Task: structure prediction
Amino acid sequence: MTSHSGLRFLLVEDTETDAWFIKRALESVPDAHLERVKDGQEAMDYLEGNEPYTDRKRYPLPDIILLDLKMPRVDGFQFLKWRREKASEEIALVPVVVLSGSNLDKDIREAYTLGANRYLVKTSDTALYQKRMRLMAELWAESELPTRSGVR
Result:
């Protein structure tokens, strides 16, 4: 079985409290690396290597993107549309897990239609978040991820 150590996550989240819960949950994943940006525009800049993210050693492409939907400037839906229509193949292949406070059917459907790989409703239950993050890390670690398969 593949180890999930060293998985790199890019968290796209504008709310400090939600970011804190996710960061705490990822502490339960051995050797997980988390980089956070606060909206879809920052995520696009990060992924494209635009200023201030030009140093790929310091800001490597993530293995998994954790995406909020409701954010200022560029929201999660706009980010997913950009990823599907304008991002490079390398970026478009990075799995996206939506972490949203919305459990509305229209939001869930739109996120999947735009290319989300998984949709999870946020919770304030730290233990549940930890369980989800561990399971997600195990699942993706056993997958051939584009950032680890030589697609780069």
